[in-house]
Design brief:
Helix content is 10%, strand content 56%. It is mainly beta and 253 residues long. It folds into 2 domains: 114 residues, Sandwich (Immunoglobulin-like); 111 residues, Immunoglobulin-like (Sandwich), CATH 2.60.40. A hairpin with a 2-residue loop joins strand 16 and strand 17. The radius of gyration is 24 Å and the shape is flat.
């Protein structure tokens, strides 16, 4: 059984939701999602959505009063092959004070008897203002090089382009994949869960390697911040322009 846990709430929210997902490795696979409200107000229009194997599964709409938990069960179609495959869960809701809220988590769904990948994936993340920089490191302790694809999974209001890209890891070596995260509305003052999944196929078996971390947002998401030097240069340009106008006016007298 594979388990994922994440919490989410907008800044100033009175609704705080936590979600935990567990996977039953059987045929067909099943994902169990439990969402709890640890805030002080009712979460309305709570809707979970699961994306797996290019198919979307929608959970029943619900509302969660404070301290209440709600469970959803997703029976998935059999995967196209043998191995481990990612499933992405997004939960969205309405907060009476802070508007819309959302959280996202990724779990790995394995077919019976599937072997775990020997690769490891780890994050290095800088604080995010309008933009943030991150690096995903893939490490391959095996004797065979691996080539696959990385998919980045970010919460609402944090984006990156492209959302996926190819990656190759040499035998007994490491590869670092850089990432630029753009803030498009995530309030500052809290951390947001981000994930990356590296998928590849080896000897007919599909593998998925999951890396999870949190990214702190420390600046707003409005217009680009202008550095002090640019502000000083702009003020100087205005002053010089006014001085030129005054000088030309004085010459005409």
């Amino acid at each position: 059984m594979l388990v994922g846990l994440v919490a989410g709430h907008p800044a100033g929210a009175t609704v705080v939701l936590q979600a935990v997902a567990a996977v039953e490795t059987r045929d067909p696979p099943t994902v169990h999602l439990v969402v709890s409200n640890t805030g002080t107000e009712t979460a309305r229009d709570v809707v979970p959505e699961l994306l797996y194997q290019h198919r979307t599964y929608d959970g029943e709409r619900a509302q969660l009063e404070p301290t209440i938990r709600r469970a959803w069960r997703f029976s998935l179609a059999p995967p196209d092959g043998v191995g481990t495959f990612p499933a992405t869960l997004r939960v969205r809701w309405s907060d009476p004070d802070a508007g819309a809220g959302s959280l996202v988590l990724v779990v790995l769904v394995a077919t019976p008897g599937a072997l775990e990948s020997p690769l490891a994936a780890t994050w290095t993340v800088e604080p995010i203002t309008r933009l943030g920089h991150a690096h995903l490191q893939l490490e391959n302790p095996g004797a065979v090089p691996v080539a696959g694809r990385v998919v980045f999974v970010l919460p609402d209001h944090l984006t990156t382009e492209p959302e996926s890209e190819p990656a190759a890891v040499p035998a007994g070596g490491r590869t670092t994949v850089p990432l630029v995260i753009e803030n498009r509305g995530a309030p500052p003052g809290r951390s947001y869960s981000i994930s990356a999944v590296f998928t590849y196929t080896e000897s007919g078996t599909h593998h998925a390697v999951l890396a999870e971390t949190t990214a702190p947002v420390v600046g707003g998401s409005g217009a680009d911040r202008i550095p002090p030097l640019a502000i000083g240069a702009g003020a100087l340009a205005v002053a010089l322009g006014l001085l030129a106008v005054a000088w030309r006016a004085a010459r005409r007298r």
